Amino acid sequence: MSLYEEIGGEPAVNAAVDIFYRKVLKDDRIKRFFDGVDMDRQAAKQKAFLTMAFGGPHNYTGEDMRRGHAHLVAQGLNDSHFDAVMEHIGATLTELNVPGNLIAQAAAIAESTRNDVLGR
Amino acid sequence: MPKVNFGGQSYDCKDKSVLDCLTAQGVAIPSSCHSGICQTCMLRAVGGNVPPKAQEGLKPTLIDQNYFLACSCYPEEDIEVVLPNDALTRVRATVSSIELLAGDIIGIKIQPSQTFDYRAGQFINFYKDETTSRSYSLASVPALNEDIFLHVRKVPDGLVSNWIFNNLQVNDIVSISMAVGNCFYVPGKPEQDILLIGTGSGLAPLYGIARDALYNKHKGKIRLYHGAYNTAGLYLAEELRKLEEANSNFSYIPCISEGPAVNGFAKGMVLDVALADNPDLAGWRVFLCGNPAMVTSAKTQTFLAGAATRDIFADPF
Predict the structure, then answer these.
(1) How far is B169 from chain A (nearest CA, A)?
(2) What Å distances lie between residue A53 and A4, A5, B38, CA to CA?
(3) What is the ipTM for the molecules in this complex?
(4) Residues of A in contact with B303 (CB under 8 A)
(5) What would the 3-class secondary structure string for B111-153 be?
(6) Cα B278 to Cα B6, B185, B214, B275, B282, distances in angstroms
């Protein structure tokens, strides 16, 4: 069984996305990066990102990640902000009672995007 | 073999998604994730049925209007599809009444010349001439009202609203678009609590949505917060108070943001008042209409108060 199936597939992503996004928007360290963005469009992007982190179907390339975050890097997006998001992914999955070994696998996938997201 | 009809052409789509089928034959459809997630490739079916799989993850109001994701749609029958905004044919209508509702808001009733499908809370484009139009929300409820009811706020230097205020007369023939928009009540989950927040003529869609929910025997709380600078801007107050008396689950909370407190009105910005009264919105359905700054802020604030993204419906104008 794939990681995506083990975590629970699309229903699991649907359960996770609001919890995750709420944590992100409440976090004083990173919420300014979301000022003025449309909630619905952003929620769809968060869902695509979590789907990828959960090992699910996606079409994102490193280049997409770079392009999508370049304007935020220009505003000062750095490792500390990426770390904050990683924290929220872990906390969200813990809240949903996902076993630790699966959380570690999802975290590793998310971690693999760090250099692209930060434009390095 | 099922066919996809688009833009007057017919395309075979054996074992292919609608997206792959159309793009392979040179039709440009915006797309991104190709996995049924990002919703970039959303189309609308205007003929035939799409499989439920193609609507997974969409808001109920979009499903209700036959929107679907082209990348996840493997048709089992012939379907006719359009781009999301291409369904706007025009309809002629007769103005049946005009009344002043508040200092800068008039109510217009119009009668379309043909069958007119709409949901309370959607909006139409109202044409001044061939190329000039503005959008106005529908305050009427199809099952309850014979005419379509619009609230028009006079915008300083507004081309269409000033024309409506100064020139429009009863019995005039006007041109309107079909109804569009995703901010409306979908029957189901009758126990769910509903929060409606609006400023100014944002009351129009909310007035329609609240009455539509009551007409559909909605059981949960329905709480309507209407905000204005002062009491003069709070129109339809008498009708809303009557609605409150007739329905124990409906409450109307008018809010004024400026000047001294007035008996019977909450004091403060409408969003602040609504959130202070209802701090935990987990499980609620939320409708937000009116001033764009209020609506944007309210989308985030109600989400942070616990409402799910798919249960928040907004119409800024």
Answers:
(1) 39
(2) 9, 12, 15
(3) 0.86
(4) 18, 21-22, 25, 39
(5) EECCCCCCCCCCEEEEECCCCCEEEEEECCCCCCCCCEEEEEE
(6) 46, 20, 20, 5, 10
Residue of B nearest to A11 (CA): B57
Residue B303 sits at the chain A interface (C-beta within 8 Å): yes
DSSP-derived letter for residue B262 is -
Q: What is the DSSP string of B12-35?
A: E-TTS-HHHHHHHTT-----S-SS
Whether B236 and B167 map to the same domain: the answer is no
Better-scored residue on pLDDT, B14 or B187: B187
Distance CA B195, CA B284 (A): 7
Question: What is the model's pLDDT at position B196?
Answer: 98
Contacts of B37 in chain A (CB under 8 A): 44, 47-48, 51, 57-58
Residues of B in contact with A21 (CB under 8 A): 303, 309
CB contact under 8 A, B303 and A45: no
Give the nearest chain B residue to A27 (CA atoms): B304
Q: Does the CB of A66 have a partner CB in chain B at under 8 Å?
A: no
Residues of B in contact with A43 (CB under 8 A): 309
CATH number for position B235: 3.40.50.80
Alpha helices in chain B, H assignment, sequence order = 18-24, 60-64, 159-167, 203-215, 237-246, 270-277, 292-304
Of B50, B82, B114, which marks where a domain is finished?
A: B82
CB contact under 8 Å between B32 and A59, yes or no, is: yes
Rounded (5°) CA angle B183-B186-B191: 120
Question: Which residues in chain A have Cβ-Cβ distances shorter than 8 Å to B304?
Answer: 22, 25-26
Residues of the domain holding A59: 3-117
DSSP H helices, chain A, are: 3-7, 9-26, 39-53, 62-74, 79-95, 100-111, 114-117
Let me know whether B212 and B139 are in one domain. Answer: no
**Both structure tokens of B226:** 């209407």
For chain B, the first-to-last Cα distance in angstroms comes to 44
Q: What is the pLDDT of residues B120-176, one digit of tens each?
A: 999 998 988 877 888 899 999 999 999 999 999 999 999 999 999 999 999 999 999
DSSP tag of B66:
T
- Alpha carbon of A90 to those of A27, B54, B128: distances in Å? 15, 30, 55
CATH code of A83's domain = 1.10.490.10
The answer to whether residue A23 neighbours chain B at the CB level (below 8 Å) is no
Query: Are B38 and A48 inside 8 Å of each other by CB?
Result: yes
